[in-house]
Amino acid sequence: MSVADVKKNAQDRMAKSIETLKGDLAKVRTGRAHTGLLDHVMVEYYGNPTPINQVANLTLIDARTIGVAPFEKKMGATIEKAIRDSDLGLNPSTQGDMIRVPTPALTEERRKEMVKLVKSEGEDAKVAVRNIRRDANESLKKLVKDKAISEDDERRGADDVQKLTDKAIVDIDKLLAEKEKEIMTV
User: Fold this and answer.
1) pLDDT value of residue 160
2) Contacts 24+ apart (CB under 8 A), 164-171
3) Cα 9–13–14 angle (5° rounding)?
4) Which parts of 35-107 fold into alpha helices (H)?
5) Which of 37, 115, 144, 147 is 20 to 30 A from 47 in CA distance terms?
6) How far apart are the C-alpha atoms of 98 and 156, rounded to whole Å?
């Protein structure tokens, strides 16, 4: 393993942490309906938990309503129950074969709770990035101990890892600022 390998590994893991944060932020609703809101809802399908988008067609009926059309008619009640039991605070209603899922408007208090949730997700991502930096620096120290690289190379490598960490944290802060602005916009 070389300094370049350690840096590449750290960079890849930091990018994955940022992608995970993006996915987590997409789950946080902003008052507008989007089908991605239901991506993490699991439905009991022949005894197996299955993502809702694999048992039904998700569409936007209007700006505040998601339409869920089950592929099998008998799945309607199960899908409706799964959406109701999810922690999204949604109240679906069945109309014929279509399940309508209205997204309620957010109150000011609820928006502030969402911002706190987003900030905690961001802090978790920053902790993950810092742990990756620590792991990379330990790998560099081990390379010096094994006499695979010089102390100067280790110091340069640690500086590069710190630059990667700083860039990742700036990216996380940008994502958080965008999401906070999106949540607070009425």
Assistant:
1) 94
2) 164/7, 164/10, 164/11, 164/14, 164/133, 165/14, 165/129, 165/130, 165/132, 165/133, 168/14, 168/15, 168/17, 168/18, 168/129, 169/126, 169/129, 171/18
3) 115
4) 76-85
5) 37
6) 60
CB distance 26 to 36 below 8 Å: yes
SS3 call for 32: coil
pLDDT digits (tens, 9 = 90+) for 36-61: 778 778 899 888 999 998 999 999 88
Q: How many domains, in total, are found in the chain?
A: 2
- CA–CA distance, 41 with 66 (Å, rounded to integer): 14
Looking at the fold, whether 97 and 112 belong to one and the same domain comes out as no
**CATH number of the domain within which 140 lies:** 1.10.132.20
Q: Are residues 23 and 43 in the same domain?
A: no
Distance in angstroms (rounded) separating the CA atoms of residues 87 and 92: 13
Q: In terms of residue numbers, what domain contains 115? A: 3-27+107-184
Tokens of 139: 């790998």
Q: How far apart are CA 114 and CA 97, in angstroms?
A: 33
pLDDT in tens, 128-161: 999 999 999 999 999 999 988 888 999 999 999 9
Rounded Cα distance, 27 and 31, in Å: 12
